[in-house]
């Protein structure tokens, strides 16, 4: 019952990692970029978990 496949955020993560390694950033800027990468990854993980439970629940009916 997947309504819509989620959009990949891999491109966003790749761009942020490139930004992180390419420029002379302040420690605060590095921290903020790393925090954003972490948030994107955690969001993806949460979406995967949610999709699993929705699919499991939908199939049991």
From TrEMBL:
UniProt name for this protein: Uncharacterized protein
Species of provenance: Thermosulfurimonas dismutans
């Amino acid at each position: 019952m997947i309504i819509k496949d989620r959009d990949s955020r891999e491109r966003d993560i790749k761009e942020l990692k490139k930004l992180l390694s390419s420029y002379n950033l302040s420690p605060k800027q590095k921290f903020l970029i790393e925090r954003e990468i972490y948030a994107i990854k955690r969001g993806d993980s949460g979406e995967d978990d949610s999709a699993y439970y929705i699919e499991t629940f939908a199939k049991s009916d």
